[in-house]
Amino acid sequence: MAVQASLMKTMMDVIGFLFISIGMIVTSIVKCLMPSSYKPFKNCKGEIILITGGGSGLGRLMAMRFARLGATIVVWDINEPGIQETVKLVEADGGKAHGYKCNIADRECVYKTADLVRKEVGNVTMLINNAGVVSGEFLLKTPDHLIQRTFDVNIVSHFWTTKAFLPNMIENDHGHIVTIASMAGHVGICKLVDYCSSKYAAVGFDESLRVELEVQGIKGVRTTVVCPYFIQSTGMFDDVMSRFVPTLKSNDVADRIVLGIRREELYVMMPTLFRYTFWLKWVVPWGMVSMFLRNLVPDASPHQVDDKVKSEKPLDNGTKESNLTAIDSNFHLHQRK
Ligand SMILES: *[C@@H]1O[C@H](CO)[C@@H](O)[C@H](O)[C@H]1NC(C)=O
Ligand SMILES: *[C@@H]1O[C@H](CO)[C@@H](O)[C@H](O)[C@H]1NC(C)=O
Ligand SMILES: *[C@@H]1O[C@H](CO)[C@@H](O)[C@H](O)[C@H]1NC(C)=O
Q1: Is the peptide bond before 298 cis (omega within 30 degrees of 0)?
Q2: pLDDT value of position 116
Q3: Nearest CA to 201 among 258, 153, 265, 137?
Q4: Which atom of ligand 2 is nearest to the CA of 319?
Q5: Which residues are catalytic?
Q6: Region Disordered: start and end of each range (predicted)?
Q7: Is 123 touching ligand 1 by the criterion CB < 6 Å?
Q8: In angstroms, rounded to a whole number, what is the distance separating the alpha carbons of residues 119 and 55?
Q9: Which contiguous run of DSSP H or E holds residue 222?
């Protein structure tokens, strides 16, 4: 009897799941077909948006767009002149921005600066984990400290920043955690072993955090993961060789991200086509996947003068520097605020 009852319950669960799923699919198709003017947009006015790595590249472009929508911007970076430049650009445009120098790889620095932001600016309502670095060399040629740095900046820091700001968002039942990951969070690329692993982790971070918030019944805090293909002129992948799929223009990417965040999309993939083709990788023979990836990105190394490491953040005086030692010392220079 007990067995029958539990079998009955399982069947009911499955049937219930199917019915609810059909409902959700129909709803999402209807939403898809609605003209975009009917779709709800997040009003960014009054939001306090913190952008890590906002002192250059994509972070700065997002800062300017959100400021124009009426949000107060908080820029975090290790590059002080970069921070000042972003703040200046936003203010010149009539927006509000505050800059803080913080090394997000340093947990204590994150917590301390977060307290400072809360006191001086207010409750952060949107956190954009944007800062990222790339080494771009064969695994065995990548020095240990750069591998460590890739993980510290690209993923471990997300834990500290999220732990710093999420509790407040939950209390106010209003917030948005945005993870800037990458297409490299879905496929492996040669010379990007550390980078890809950290981005896979970032994709997992977003998804598990979202499920966790849903399990806890927290409806007001959203998450979005952004997975762009290689982007031009952010200082990161400028010289990457990519065939067939053109590398993306940073302004287009920033526009798309802002739109995706305002629509509270869960996944923002660029180009969108990739979203509908990724699953193929689990179906076709590995040789095909490998052939495709190798031809698509013949060399992911961000070449510079001597094929060394490049950082997303320019040196203090704004000059881009490919010298390994230079970047590293620059990094340690800012370990302590
Ligand atoms: C900030 O959040 C706290 C709850 O964590 C709340 O008590 C306070 O009123 C909020 N401040 C503003 C300005 O909304
Ligand atoms: C920037 O710093 C680098 C290395 O410290 C130096 O070689 C270069 O001359 C500096 N450039 C400017 C414009 O100050
Ligand atoms: C890199 O920088 C270090 C110290 O600043 C210097 O000794 C070395 O010669 C530089 N190497 C290159 C290739 O510029």
Answers
A1: no
A2: 97
A3: 153
A4: 1
A5: 195
A6: 302-323
A7: yes
A8: 22
A9: strand 221-228
Q: What is the CATH number of domain 41-333?
A: 3.40.50.720
The DSSP 8-state label assigned to residue 274 in this structure reads G
φ, ψ dihedrals at 179, nearest 5°? -110, 115
Check if 315 has its Cβ closer than 6 Å to any atom of ligand 2. yes
Neighbouring-strand partners of residue 99: 75
Please tell me the number of the ligand nearest to residue 171's CA. 1
Q: Measured from the CA of 308, which atom of ligand 3 is nearest?
A: 13
State the distance from the centre of ligand 3 to the C-alpha of 312, rounded, in angstroms: 19
CA-to-CA distance for 105 and 333, rounded, in angstroms? 13
Residue located nearest, by CA, to atom 7 of ligand 2? 319
Q: Say how far apart CA 90 and CA 83 lie, in whole Å.
A: 11
Calculate how far, in angstroms, residue 298's C-alpha sits from the geometric centre of ligand 1: 50
Give the H or E element holding residue 112: helix 107-120
Q: Which of 37-51, 59-73, 315-329 has the highest mean pLDDT?
A: 59-73
80-83 contacts, C-beta under 8 A, 24 or more apart: 80/55, 80/316, 81/55, 81/316, 81/317, 81/318, 82/55, 82/56, 82/313, 82/314, 82/318, 83/54, 83/55
For residue 203, give the 3-state DSSP assignment: helix
Retrieve residue 219's tokens. 């409806």
Q: Where are the domains of the chain?
A: 41-333
Quote the ligand 2 centre to 323 CA distance (angstroms): 12
Lowest-confidence pick of 70-79, 147-156, 235-244, 308-317:
308-317
Q: Are 54 and 76 in contact (CB under 8 A)?
A: yes
**Ligand 3 atom 6, closest CA:** 325
| C-alpha to C-alpha distance for 130 and 113, rounded to whole angstroms | 17
Task: Report the nearest-CA residue for atom 14 of ligand 1.
Answer: 123
Q: Are 95 and 67 in contact (CB under 8 A)?
A: yes
Helix axes 57-68, 80-92, angle to 10 degrees: 30
Q: Who has greater pLDDT, 79 or 250?
A: 79
